[in-house]
Amino acid sequence: MNKSFIIVILFISVLSACKYTTPPEMLMGKWYVASVKANGHEMINDYLDHNTRYLIFKEEGTYQVGLLDSVSEKAWMVHPDKSELIMMQGSPFDDIKTWKVKASDELIYLTDKHNHFNITLNRKKELPEIEIAEEDALIGKWVIDKMTINGYDNTDKYAFSKRWILLADNGRFYNGSDKGDQNVGYWKANTSLTEIEFYDQKEQEKPFITFNIANNTIWYEKQKVDNSKPQVRVYFKKAN
């Protein structure tokens, strides 16, 4: 047998015996979210808009979600031997923190442990210019769109699916339901348009609740009494 052929066969055998790993340096950089599939169905437009379809994994171990993300303490890490990515402060996909990851120089594939979500990322050299939405876009009626428990959709079990929030242009808000009960107070958005703060009184220093602005939704997380309680998030979308 040809000696060169034998060497090639041995080389291929050695490579095939190597365990697949994902070193962290393969993930570092800027990425465009090309696909978000939930149970095999393309759902990217339900989760991401033109400002949030980006992930940046930074060398110092923090990550950025979208073009407008100003929160710097989001931490990420990889277990190379498990090909496991951990996004410790919540990922853009229903706050699932642990992902199975496969990566090449130009592509990343993410899958949650239940194989519910399958995410495809493409490497980007440069990010587009930031298009910041005007605060006026928040004005109007918002209705409950989804409720998740520990990152998974449980909307059909939510007891308050008919609630709504009206954000008025004079800084007032009205929160009610189809049963007629209603709360009134004041609202304001932060300068980066990533949060809405709600106040009982206009001169109040601290908000009684804060909503996040992301993916064409506003959402809040119910406070947990202790760590044994599930993580519950309620999402609102703009009414037509």
If you had to describe this structure to a student in words, what would you say it looks like?
By secondary structure, this protein is mainly β. The protein folds into two domains: 105 residues, Lipocalin; 104 residues, Lipocalin. A hairpin with a 5-residue loop joins strand 13 and strand 14.
Write the layout of secondary structure elements.
Layout (H helix, E strand, L loop, with lengths): L2 H15 L11 E10 L2 E2 L1 H4 L6 E4 L5 E3 L10 E4 L4 E4 L10 E6 L3 E6 L4 E8 L15 E10 L2 E2 L10 E4 L4 E5 L5 E8 L5 E5 L9 E6 L2 E5 L10 E7 L2
Antiparallel strand pairs: 1-2, 1-3, 1-9, 3-4, 5-6, 6-7, 7-8, 8-9, 10-11, 10-12, 10-18, 12-13, 13-14, 14-15, 15-16, 16-17, 17-18
Question: What is the CATH first-level class name of the largest domain?
Answer: Mainly Beta
Residue windows where pLDDT falls under 50 for at least 5 positions: none
Q: Give the N-terminus to C-terminus distance in angstroms.
A: 73 Å
Gross morphology: globular
| Number of structural units classed as domains | 2
Q: Strand percentage, roughly?
A: 35-45%
Tally of helical runs: 2
Radius of gyration using CA atoms only: 22 Å
Name the helicity range. under 10%
What are the secondary-structure elements, in order, as H or E?
A: HEEHEEEEEEEEEEEEEEEE
Mean of residue pLDDT values:
83
Q: Please state the oligomeric state of the protein chains shown.
A: single chain
Largest sheet: 9 strands, antiparallel
- Stated plainly, the CATH topology of the largest domain is called Lipocalin
CATH arch. level architecture of the largest domain = Beta Barrel
Structural class of the secondary structure composition? Answer: mainly beta
Tell how many strands the DSSP assignment holds: 18
